Amino acid sequence: MRSDKQSRTPMGLKIAAGLGLAFLHLPLLLIFLYAFTTEDKSYQFPPPGLTLKWFAVTWNRPDVWEALGLSVRVASISTVVALVLGTLCAAAVSQTRFFGRETISLLVILPIALPGIITGISLRSAFNLAEIPFSFWTIVLGHATFCVVVVYNNAVARFRRVSGSLIEASMDLGADGFQTFRHVILPNIGTALLAGGMLAFALSFDEVIVTTFTAGQQATLPIWMLEELVRPRQRPVTNVVAMVVVLVTFLPILAAYYLTRDGDQISGQGK
Amino acid sequence: MPHAVTFQKVSRHFGSVRAVDAVDLEVEAGEFFAMLGPSGSGKTTCLRLIAGFEQPTSGHIEIFGETAEGVPPYRRNVNTVFQDYALFPHLNVADNVAYGQMIRGVGKAERLRDAEAALEMVKLPGYGARKPGELSGGQRQRVALARALVNKPKVLLLDEPLGALDLKLREQMQEELKTLQKALGITFVFVTHDQGEALSMADRIAVFNHGKIMQTGTPEEIYRRPKTRFVADFVGSSNVLSPAFTRRLGGPAEWASLRPEDIRIGAEGGHEARVTGSSFLGNATRLTLDMAGEKLTVLLPAGSAVPAPGASVRFSWEPSALHLMGTET
Ligand SMILES: Nc1ncnc2c1ncn2[C@@H]1O[C@H](COP(=O)(O)OP(=O)(O)OP(=O)(O)O)[C@@H](O)[C@H]1O
Ligand SMILES: [Mg+2]
C-alpha cells in the first residue's frame, strides 16, 4: 500500500516540478541564448547563427562600464551603510528592553513590505522638499532603505541567540563593551552579517524602481538595460550584460544561503 | 581584614517589585556563604548586585572595603558561575577558560598553560580542544568553574550552579566545590533554593524571603534555632506550631518549631494523635498525624515499625527539641 503510493505520486509531482522549473528558468536560458545570436535587430527563433563577437563588443562599450561601475559602487556603499545601521538596530531591538520596542522592529521591516514605487515616490518628494539634488548619494540612500532591512532581519535572529548571559559572562571576565562586541558578539553574528550583506548587495545591484525615482542623469546597470531595450542599438549586448548581472547577483545569494545554513548547524552544536 | 562583601541597607526595586529590600549583609573573607530562599526571593538580584550587573536603588555596597556602586562588572575582582554556564559556543574549552586572561593581554602560551592547569583542577584535563556543545552538563559546569577560577577572583559568585545536574552528580559536585573552596581560600557566595545543599556546604547561610534576609547564621543555628516561622518551615520542613497548639502540647503560648525527626512514636506517655497517612522515603518513613485538627509531620527512621493509617498512636519529644520563636512572627 505504502510503497505503492510512494511510487505513484512522484510521477505527477515530477512533472509539476519540471514544469515549474521550466517556467522559472526557460526565459533565463533564452536570454543566455540570444547573447550568442548573429542577428542583432530582432529576437527571431531559432537564432540564425551563433557567435562570440558580442562579448568583445560589450567589452568595448564605455557606457556599459560606466553603468556597471556605478552599480557596483552604489551596491557596495549601500551594503556598508546597511551593515552598520542594520546591526545597530538589531542590537538595540534584541539586547535591550525599552518602550515601543516591537513598534520599532515593525517600522524597520516596513520598507521592504512597501511597494518599491511608494518608497521611490516618497523619497523623491522628500529630496525635492529638502532641495537635495539627485546624485550618487541619493541613489545610495534609496537603496539603503531596503538593504538595512535585509541585514537587520538576518542579524536580529542571530542576536537573539547570543543570549544576554553570554554578554554578561564576557563582562564578568573583564571585557568592556567594545571587547565583548569584538570577541563574543561579532564571531556569533559574523556569518549572519555576511549573508545579510551579500543579499543586500544583490538586491541593490538589480534594483530598478526605487532607482528610477532617486537617480538623476546617472544610469545604474539595470536602468541602462531598460533603456537599451527601448531603443536598441546592438541588442545582444544587453543579453551579455544580463548574463553578467545574473552571475553577480546569483553567486552572493547562493553563498548567503550556504553561509546561514552552516551557521545554524554550528550554533545548534553550541547548545 | 575587611569583609569580603558588605551590604548596608541595600535595595533594588524594579518598578513596584522590591526584588531586594533593605538588606544588610556581611560576607567574611574566605568563607563559603550560601543564599537560600524560595523562587523570586531576590537571591539572584543580590548576586547581580555584587557582580555589578545591577546597581542598587538605594544603600551601599562594599567589596573588600572598596565602594562598589558605579564600578562596572569588568572592573570588579569578582567572577560568576552562571546558572546556564554561559560558555561561549564559538570558542573551544581552552579558549573559554583562557578568555579572561586573553582580555587582560596575557600571552597565548601562558594563558593556555594556565587554562590547562585550571581544567586539571576541575578534573577535566585534556578537554581543551572540545567545543562546549560536545560536553555533558556536568562537564560544562566544571568548565564554567575553571573559567571563573583561573582569574583568581577575590569573590566567586555561583548562581544555582548545580541546579541542572542529576542527584548523584550533584552530591559529587557539592563535595568537590567544598574541597576546592577550602583549598583555594576564595570567598564563595553560593545561591541555592535547596536547603539540603545550603546546610551541607555552607559555613554560613542567609535565608531570603520577599527580598529580605530572614535570618543569617551557621547551618546549625539556622536548622536548630530558626528565628521565624518562615525559616523553620523552609529549612527542613519543620512543624510550625501555633501559640495555641504549643500551649496544648504543654509549652508556653508562643510560636514553636518541632523537627519531624525529633518526634518519637511510642505506646505510652506524651500525647495522643491519629495517623492520617504515611509515605516511604527510602531512608525514612514520613507519617502525618492529626491531633484534634492540628497536623504534625513525623519522620521515622528506617527499620522502625510503621503504624497503619487510621491507627491511634502516642507521640513525644525531648524537651530541648521544642524551639520557641516568640509570639510575634
Ligand atoms: N530585570 C528585572 N525586571 C523586573 N523584575 C525583576 C528583574 N529581575 C528580577 N525581577 C524580580 O525580582 C524578584 C526577585 O528575582 P530574583 O531573580 O532575584 O529571584 P531569585 O531568588 O533568584 O529566584 P529564583 O530562585 O527563581 O532564581 C522577582 O519577583 C523577579 O520577578
Ligand atoms: Mg535566581
Distance N to C terminus of chain B:
36 Å
Question: What is the helix fraction of residues of chain B, given as a range?
Answer: 25-40%
Quote the CATH topology of the largest domain in chain B: Rossmann fold
Query: Order of strands in the sheet with the most strands of chain B?
Result: 6-7-8-3-9-10
User: How many DSSP H or I helices of chain A?
Assistant: 11
- Unreliable parts of chain B: none
The ligands found in this model are: adenosine-5'-triphosphate, magnesium ion
Short account of what is shown:
By secondary structure, chain A is mostly helical.
Question: Could you characterize what this model shows?
Answer:
The complex is a heterodimer of chains A (271) and B (329). With 271 residues, chain A is mostly helical. Chain A contains eleven helices and no strands. Chain A has helices at residues 2-34, 53-59, 62-95, 101-113, 116-129, 136-161, 164-172, 177-205, 209-214, 221-230, 235-269. Chain A is globular. Chain B has a six-stranded mixed beta sheet, sandwiched between helices. Chain B has a five-stranded antiparallel beta sheet with strand order 13-17-14-15-16, with no helix packed on it. A four-stranded antiparallel beta sheet of chain B has the order 2-1-4-5, covered by helices on one side. With 329 residues, chain B is an alpha+beta fold. The two termini of chain B are 36 Å apart. Chain B folds into two domains: 5-229, P-loop containing nucleotide triphosphate hydrolases (Rossmann fold); 237-324, OB fold (Dihydrolipoamide Acetyltransferase, E2P) (Beta Barrel), CATH 2.40.50. The chains are: A mainly alpha (271), B alpha+beta (329). The A-B interface holds A 163, 165-166, 168-176, 179, 183-184, 187-188, 266-271 and B 51-53, 72-74, 78-80, 82, 84, 86-91, 99-100, 102-104, 131-134, 147-148, 151. The site of adenosine-5'-triphosphate has 12 residues of chain B, from strand 2 and helix 1. Magnesium ion binds at residues 43-44, 159 of chain B.
